[in-house]
Amino acid sequence: MIAKFEKEGNQNVNASSNQKDTFTAADWSNMSNKEKSDILMNYRLAYRSIAYVNWCEALGTILANDEVKDGVSERGGFPVERKAMEQWSLRTTAYAERLLTGLDQVDWSEALKGIQRNWIGRSEGATAFFQLDGHDEQIEIFTTRPDTIFGATFMVLAPEHDLIDKITTPEQKAKINAYLEYVGSRSELQRQSDVKNITGEFTGAYAINPIKGDKIPIWIAEYVLKDYGSGAIMAVPSDDERDQAFARHFGLDIVSVVDKADYPNADVHDKSGIMINSGFINGMEVKEAIQAVIQKLEELGVGHRTINYKLRDANFSRQRYWGEPFPVVYDTEGVAHLVDEAQLPVELPPLDDFKPTKDGKAPLAKVEDWVYADGRRREVDTMPGFAGSSWYFLRYMDPDNDDEFVSQKAVNYWQDVDLYIGGTEHAVGHLLYSRTWHKFFYDLGLVPTEEPFKKLVNQGMIGGRSNFIYRANEKFAEQLLEKELKKISTTFEKDTIIGEGEEAFKVDFACDKIKLAIELKSLYDLERYKDKHKQTLNEAGYHLLPISIEEVFAHYHEFDFIINKIKKASNGEIVPLNRNVRDTALFVSKDMIEDRSAVTKLYVDVNIVYNDVLDLAKFEKSRTDFANPVYILNDNGDYVCSHAFEKMSKSKFNVVNPDDMVEEYGADCFRMYEMFLGPIEQGKPWNTEGINGVQGFLKKFWALFYHHQDAWMVTNEKATKDEMKVVHTCIKRVNEDIERFSFNTCVSEFMKCANELRKLNCHKKEALEPLVVLLAPFAPHLAEELWHELGNEQTVFDADFPSHDEQYLVENSITYPISVNGKKRALFDFPVDASKDDIEKTALELEAIQKYIEGKTIRKVIVVPKKMVNIVV
RNA sequence: GCGGGUAUGGUGGAAUUGGUAGACACGCUAGACUUAGGAUCUAGUGCCGUGAGGCGUGGGGGUUCGACUCCCUCUACCCGCACCA
Fold first, then answer.
1. Exposed, middle or buried, A411 (CB in 10 Å: 0-12/13-18/19+)?
2. A67-76: long-range contacts (C-beta < 8 A, 24 or more apart)?
3. What are the start-end ranges of the H helices in A123-238?
4. Which residues of A394-407 are buried (b: 16+ CB within 10 A; e: fewer)?
5. A16 pLDDT exceeds 60?
6. Which helix (H) or strand (E) holds A415?
7. Residue A327 preceded by cis peptide, ω within 30
8. DSSP label of A501
């Protein structure tokens, strides 16, 4: 194979050759792993290819995918175009299989492995070639169900498929072009979100089934993706939901080929059933038929077994300044060469302006004397972040080595990373790339292990805890007014029609007796509404009292004001509109809401909410848009907010800055509180209620050493047995909990220990010193300071980490819970060495137990030594 | 739809091997000290019930002397992927 390569060359594989002979994806996928790695070893992992970038003309920059939202830049909303550029790619696909099987060897969460498996997306099946009727070309398809080839009643190409133009018949041309235009008009987002809508068009062309031999129509449709498989499928409507929906929609044939009568609960993915209507494979089980068809395809030379992967080669170029420059120069022919070893490492030239060039080239292109330093043209793209992040841990093993990236001695000693703590957000980026990279190093014999990260723990994501306030809306004002009107008069009717015919209109409240109509609207609306129905009102003999919603809210707590207005109006007085209440909003405490639909939920800055109670003064200061707020507070006089767990985001007003917390509580306290929140792998909202508890602990711990600020209290007295027991219990548990990454319970243990030592009034060095070392990983600053105060010269981090001494933990009696029928009824202390019989006898005689067993037959007494007693009656 | 996960007091959570459910904190209640308190200390705090007592780990069922823990089943929510041939 290498010989073949030497001879024929390949532009995609050999970076240092400009020969243009091609080498197909199919050739590559048919090679064994050995052949692939040989090629990669000899011809490098990286190659040049055309890749697309998100170019934003207005911003003059290339954007990452997540900086593009709905086809425009997230920042500014400027148009973004896909721009083709020749870039470096990394042949990660060569490692697809090993990346997949390697997952079985690592101790990672199933979730993370699942994401990687899914991303690699292995599927086993067959490639088959369908001869075009009346053309020389064939259409390559991939299928996981070659057994259903007799049920293929049509073919579908992706709208981007190369052959469409060629095969479309003149009669269908217009329709096909119209369809392609429709597809082109749809954004990636639309195509993805609108999957139920069935669209497609017939090309007019036919293909010949390589096994069955019949002619089937070729369609194009959006549901076939250009990037998966070969961008074309044989459609088997009987055994594929999407094909079936398509066939039904366009009235295409459906031929049943799998009899699933024996498997009533199986779905398509189970690959079970008996073949029917399928020529030579009739009567075979599906799994058997798959093999038989693949064999037949190979015999006929029209297909072969294929393993397909979703994984794509990684784009290894960035048009940014910050990144490792490539050690590559181009000759006059444009062929890439490695720079001479003597010139390594290639360093970034200084630059002030980090924007790309006007035509979208990387910023380094602007530094001409660097680019053409030795006459040849340097590569101006830089490497992506994962170039360095894929192997930095190897460099850490031997950071001062000037000759190699890591010495064999060092790497054989350290091997790989024992424990990696990181988030799932790197699942298909960094964590996949470094595995690829490591395997490449392994193949080169540079590292002794195939997997870089043996064990990986995902820390949970700390989300934002949003707070909400409730602003009363129009409905609220209506309900309120209605209620208050009923108190003064029963003659007001809600939603009364005034006038007749076309002139008729509805007012919110009206009293026929005194001919008063009341319209409730926002001030803004009322100003426009005022004279609208004047004539109709006059004809009907009504006069109108406009009341603004703002006014109702403003006088919520002195509603008589509104009532008086109504009374005045009832007496025929003209009551003018009050414009001073503009911008008045009424906020209802969460626990005072009666009708959820009468209030609008709004985000409020979490930094002015304490334990879900809104700080009203800060609120009024921070939100000028609610200038004159009125509140409905609860019985305690508090405004209570509701809350929700969401991602932190500025628009949600739920972003908390850890710097503020560190400023207020100190880094030790912040660090410990993060640990105390709960299990490390569990995500949860960021919530600072409770940090006081950790702060309290640190103060208590400090108080074991110091009285007030400065009175040192630690003595050299010998610690008592009780004190040592407390200390060693803590040492034991903290050590065990660290082993299982249960840092929250470590913090609890420290708290318990400090509480108990305080009760024992213990200020003895013998007891406290080991605790300081134990605490060092949790509260490093405090521990280091106390460690020095205790008279130690070296840093606390060089001290031996304490381990417990069993002699302090020996118990001479154990408290047994004594249950009757599994319910705990009494507690009793027994000596450690009490015999089962003694325990049973004593337990049965206990007064507290007698009560429950009196007059009942004792069926069984279970005594579990050192645990419990259960009496079954 | 597929894959992974979670569910325990008012709140965060603990219970390591099937053996005292609610450790440790927050919050809350009462009290002490204080000019003051977002300080400190003391006591109480799963729910129902005046009480005896009963109930209780998302719902239902099972195994067991004994289930937060094991099995079956259902529900809700979270995360990831998704027209993947």
1. buried
2. A70/A187, A70/A189, A71/A187, A71/A188, A71/A189
3. 164-167, 170-185, 188-193
4. beebbeeeeeeebe
5. no
6. none
7. no
8. G
Can you tell me the distance from the alpha carbon of A317 to that of A64, in angstroms, rounded to the nearest whole number?
12
Q: Pairing mode, if any, of strands A492-498 and A462-472?
A: unpaired
User: Which DSSP helix (H) or strand (E) runs through A292?
Assistant: helix A286-300
Task: Find residue A815's DSSP bridge partners.
Answer: A829
Which fold is adopted by the domain A813-872? Answer: Ubiquitin-like (UB roll) (3.10.20)
Is the domain A665-808 a CATH 1.10.730.10 member? yes
Kindly report, residue by residue over A121-160, the tens digit of the pLDDT.
999 999 999 999 989 999 999 999 999 999 999 999 999 8
User: What DSSP string runs through A675-743?
Assistant: HHTS-TT--EE---TTHHHHHHHHHHHHHTTEETTTEE--B-PPPPHHHHHHHHHHHHHHHHHHHTT-H
On chain B, which bases lie within 7 A of the protein's CB atoms? Answer: 3-6, 11-16, 19-21, 23-28, 38-41, 53, 65-67, 78-81, 83-85
Domain A665-808 and domain A813-872 have a common topology: no
Q: CB under 8 Å, gap of 24 or more: what pairs does A442-447 form?
A: A443/A37, A443/A40, A443/A41, A444/A41, A446/A405, A446/A406, A446/A411, A447/A394, A447/A411, A447/A416
Tokens of A634: 């609860």
ipTM for the whole complex:
0.93
Tokens, residue A111: 């979730």
Q: What percentage of chain A's residues is helix, strand, coil (to nearest 5)?
A: 40, 25, 40
A267: nt with nearest C1' to CA? B1
What single DSSP character describes residue A107? B
CATH fold of A123-308: Isoleucyl-tRNA Synthetase; domain 2 (3.90.740)
> Which nt has its C1' nearest the CA of A310?
B84
- Identify the CA nearest to A570 among candidates A462, A485, A498: A485
Q: Answer for the pair A492, A456: CB distance below 8 angstroms, yes or no.
A: no
Domain ranges of chain A: 2-105+314-386, 123-308, 460-656, 665-808, 813-872
Closest C-alpha to A381, from A43, A15, A85, A45: A85
> Which nucleotide is closest to A750, CA to C1'?
B24
| Nearest to A463, CA basis, from A586, A341, A594, A645 | A645
Burial (Cβ within 10 Å: 0-12, 13-18, ≥19) of residue A324: middle
Q: What is the DSSP string of A468-495?
A: EEEEE-HHHHHHHHHHHHHHH-S-EEEE
Query: CA of A708 vs C1' of B35, distance in Å?
Result: 21
Query: In terms of Cα–Cα distance, which of A234, A77, A75, A220 is closest to A157?
Result: A220
Alpha-carbon gap, residue A696 to A501, rounded angstroms: 75
CA distance A501 to A614: 51
- Are A763 and A704 in contact by the 8 Å Cβ rule? The answer is yes
Q: Which nucleotide is nearest to A199 (CA to C1')?
A: B83
**Model confidence pLDDT, tens digit, residues A310-348:** 888 888 888 888 899 998 888 888 888 888 888 888 899
> What CA–CA distance (Å, rounded) separates A799 from A773?
7
Gap from A193 CA to B58 C1', Å: 33
**Residue written as tokens 């954004």?**
A187
Please choose, from the candidates A621, A554, A608, A605, the residue with its C-alpha nearest in 3D space to the C-alpha of residue A583.
A554
CA distance A425 to A111: 12
Reported as a single tens digit per residue, the pLDDT across A410-451 is 999 999 999 998 888 888 889 999 999 999 899 888 999 999
Counting Cα atoms < 13 Å in the Cβ hemisphere of A213 gives 3
Task: Report pLDDT digits (tens) over A275-310.
Answer: 999 999 999 988 899 999 999 999 999 999 988 888
| Cβ pair A457, A633 in contact under 8 A | no
**The CATH homologous superfamily of the domain defined by A460-656:** VSR Endonuclease (3.40.960.10)
